[in-house]
Amino acid sequence: KAGVTQTPRYLIKTRGQQVTLSCSPISGHRSVSWYQQTPGQGLQFLFEYFSETQRNKGNFPGRFSGRQFSNSRSEMNVSTLELGDSALYLCASYTVGVGGNEQFFGPGTRLTVL
Amino acid sequence: AQSVAQPEDQVNVAEGNPLTVKCTYSVSGNPYLFWYVQYPNRGLQFLLKYITGDNLVKGSYGFEAEFNKSQTSFHLKKPSALVSDSALYFCAVRDQGGNFNKFYFGSGTKLNVKP
Prior knowledge:
By secondary structure, chain A is mainly β. In chain A, 0% of the residues lie in helices and 53% in strands. Chain A is globular and about 40 Å long. Chain B has no helices and twelve strands. In chain B, strands 2, 5, 6, 10, 11 and 12 form a six-stranded mixed beta sheet that branches. Chain B has a four-stranded antiparallel beta sheet with strand order 3-9-8-7, with no helix packed on it. Chain B has a two-stranded antiparallel ribbon with strand order 1-4.
């Protein structure tokens, strides 16, 4: 079974631009979560989607948004980029319904904002 | 409120010595507990989990963890460290009480294993 894939792996943008990141979960996984990882803040939860619906949301400004498609693939969008948005963005998927199931993570997208 | 604490930013051990990476948690109900490892420029890899049953859980790469309900801890251990174990380790907890409960991650502990 293929793992979680994320594209692109690396992005360089300038302040004020917007960016879209993509995540394809493991086949059969319908829940997708997004995290921001920075050296100082650790792993911060952004949001979780299941069956195209946002189920959970972290404490991030409205510039951060996401969506999920009917095939469970997910995208996140960051508008009006700021220098502080530079981070590794991780996507994770898991099987909902059995609460003890672990999340499987993709390799991440490294976003650099100049 | 649910939370996870990893009190050590960094742990240094010599190769061949036992290692322990500490984790304490707080949840409103019974916990699901997880350990992940992250190598540089990679995503997180699942190591092991505690759901129920035996308090000592064995996982990948020779790692194990002990669930202690009274101390609300879930420390990661390995009897003999390898240089290749050097990485960033994350503890995570999830409340058993619902399908869409969040995963809460600790701040991470950097493990350095010296030859």
